[in-house]
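Pasting as-is:
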Amino acid sequence: MELPPAVAGSFDVFVNGVQQLPGVDFDQVGSRLVFRRELAREGRLGFWRWAGIVLGVAGTYRRHDTVDVVYGSGAGRTVVSLEPTRPPRL
């Protein structure tokens, strides 16, 4: 996942509110963050899933990881949320 251009210097990364360690949980390759475990994204809900939610039959219990990057800026510390992307299929 690509870091925003405003993120320069040191920064902290959190997945689902848990701090991640560089070199242990993720690597920085240029301006990209490469995580060592797969991050999940719920994706779009189909018609039947929406119908189940509306009727109270099913909930949305799929895994959905959130990635937050905390970095220093002129206004102090800023948080930006990033969306996990799926790797391209080969």
